[in-house]
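Incident log, support desk, overnight shift.

02:14 A customer reports that sequence design results differ from what the structure should imply. Their input is reproduced verbatim below. On-call engineer (initials T.W.) acknowledged and began investigating.
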């Protein structure tokens, strides 16, 4: 067991997680008051009440882990949430999903046109917030470098979204391309949060390399667990329709793994479930049975767990301290939240960072 692993689940780390989260929540509520213009109201609807807040907390903890002050980079944490939520608004439009965080999706409540503009507004607000760090004492050259990192992550996210469409449309049941898509699409915002936090906090090149490696592995583990939710959880714990992936024919990891190891007839059954011809709930039930029988769910979980361990090991390159412990804690807490563990807001489990 590494030194970092030994420090997991400490009360001190959990208290730190709540402090960081509350900082960002208060800032978001102050920046997005009720009774604003329709497009800003759509943004507020998507932002508040907040989600798990992983990315803002990752940014603040990364800054602190390299010796920075979380207060000076708080606007960048708000920026991270704006970018994440803006991408969710657009994702829901692309996927025709009508529920997000247990409520009507922005495009469902405000219309597609308003929702598209709201997502765009949040992307531009991201950059506005990021530049505010200079006013809080962060050197201007760090802010410029952080802007470049955000832009790279945004470019990767768009490439990942495009690659996902290619894999789905071409029925590419291959693990390598799937993992590349995850690295580009899902890990991009984790990577941006950690790298930007490290940059603004004054981290060394070695610090930044460790944070990027951590984020890539965490993003992969997170996405694989998210892929499994439709096949292992109930609709209430997901906060969005469990049939979304089936309805959109999306090739998530357990489906790719089951198809790879299946015989001809079973492969055809898997493909039939993804065509959209069958009623979505029936297709989901049929595909779930195939995944369970094939062992693909366990195989996907093993890959996620390997990446979770690698994420924690990457942190050993950072100096010891509360923030490094917190980053390690985020790995277990993020995956536990996806698995439907009880919320720590009730004193029983996972903090919603």
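02:41 Re-run completed on a clean worker. Output:
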């Amino acid at each position: 067991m590494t030194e970092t692993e030994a420090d997991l689940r400490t009360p001190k780390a959990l208290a730190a997680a709540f402090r960081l989260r509350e900082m960002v929540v208060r800032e978001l509520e102050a920046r997005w008051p009720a009774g604003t213009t329709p497009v800003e109201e759509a943004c507020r609807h998507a932002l508040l009440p907040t989600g798990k807040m992983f990315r803002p907390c990752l940014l603040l903890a990364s800054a602190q882990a390299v010796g920075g002050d979380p207060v000076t980079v708080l606007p960048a944490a708000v920026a991270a949430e704006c970018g994440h939520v803006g991408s969710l608004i657009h994702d829901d439009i692309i996927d025709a999903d009508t529920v997000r965080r247990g409520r009507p999706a922005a495009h469902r409540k405000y219309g597609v046109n308003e929702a598209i503009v709201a997502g765009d507004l949040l992307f531009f607000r991201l950059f506005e917030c990021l530049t505010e760090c200079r006013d809080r004492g962060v050197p201007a050259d760090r802010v410029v470098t952080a802007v470049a990192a955000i832009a790279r992550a945004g470019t990767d996210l768009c490439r990942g979204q495009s690659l996902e469409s290619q894999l789905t449309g071409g029925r590419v049941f291959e693990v390598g391309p799937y993992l590349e898509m995850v690295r580009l699409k899902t890990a991009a915002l984790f990577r941006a949060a950690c790298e930007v936090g490290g940059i603004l906090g004054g981290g060394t090149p070695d610090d930044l390399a460790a944070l990027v490696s951590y984020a890539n592995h965490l993003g992969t583990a997170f996405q694989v667990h998210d892929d499994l939710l439709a096949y292992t959880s109930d609709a209430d714990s997901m906060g969005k329709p469990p049939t979304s992936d089936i309805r959109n024919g999306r090739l998530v990891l357990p489906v790719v793994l089951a198809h790879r190891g299946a015989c001809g007839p079973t492969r055809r059954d898997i493909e039939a479930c993804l065509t959209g011809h069958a009623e979505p709930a029936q297709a989901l039930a049929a595909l779930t049975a195939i995944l369970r029988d094939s062992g693909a769910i366990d195989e996907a979980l093993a890959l996620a767990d390997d990446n979770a361990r690698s994420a924690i090991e990457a942190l050993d390159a950072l100096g010891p301290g509360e923030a490094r412990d917190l980053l390690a804690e985020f790995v277990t807490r993020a995956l536990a939240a996806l698995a439907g563990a009880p919320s720590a807001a009730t004193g029983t489990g996972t903090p919603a960072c």
